[in-house]
Amino acid sequence: MLWARSPGGGLSLFIMLGVQIGAAALLFPLLLANWRVGLIAMVTAWPFAELAGFLADAESRQWVAGELYVSVWLVSLYLWATVLRNSWGMIFGTALAAMISLGGPVLWYLRSEFANRGRMDSGSLAMFGPIMRTFSLIIPGSPNTGWEMMGIVLATGVIAKSVTHVHDEHCRDKLST
């Protein structure tokens, strides 16, 4: 379906980045269990985005911006994966990440199909989650929006990881005394 200069080839970058974000959300407790595996996932995602950008005949700025967004998403999910320790936490985290990432495109589709509000511009895509925010980054001529939500997800992940680390140190100190 997707090959160079095919009718659907222009969508390959959108498909690749959307699948990377959605799959990472569904698999993050296992995919990002430790920093080594997370780094491998992040490093292997870049060549696929470059290939998809080549098939879409996209500028390098477009696929790099999209893949940078995916990389920040992976780092954020890694931070959350290290905080979630039991199976219920992992299930809840996976459901929440799936809702945040995959729920946006579903809501965008329902709104565009049934709300009769006409065509939405690329700036309004950014309010429908990380997949749609990535799309708004790679559309030529669109404003560079969408980094606010990723900053919030990353910041909450850093805070949760820090709190967990401090709590573990405190418990370890109590056990040693």
Describe this structure in words.
Helix 1 runs parallel beside helix 3 and helix 3 packs antiparallel against helix 6. The chain has one domain. It contains seven helices and no strands. It is globular. The mean pLDDT is 81. It has 177 residues and is mainly alpha-helical.
Layout of SSEs?
Elements: H1 12-31, H2 35-55, H3 60-83, H4 87-114, H5 122-125, H6 129-138, H7 147-176
Helix pairs in contact: 1-2, 1-3, 1-4, 1-6, 2-3, 3-6, 3-7, 4-6
What tags apply to this protein structure?
177 residues
Mean pLDDT: 81
Q: What's the main sheet like?
A: none
Radius of gyration: 18 Å
- Low-confidence parts lasting 5 or more residues at pLDDT below 50? none
Compute the number of strand runs: 0
Count of individual helical segments: 7
What is the H-and-E element order?
A: HHHHHHH
Distance between the termini: 64 Å
Q: Could you say which structural class the secondary elements and strand pairing correspond to? A: mainly alpha
Q: Helicity level, as a percent range? A: over 70%
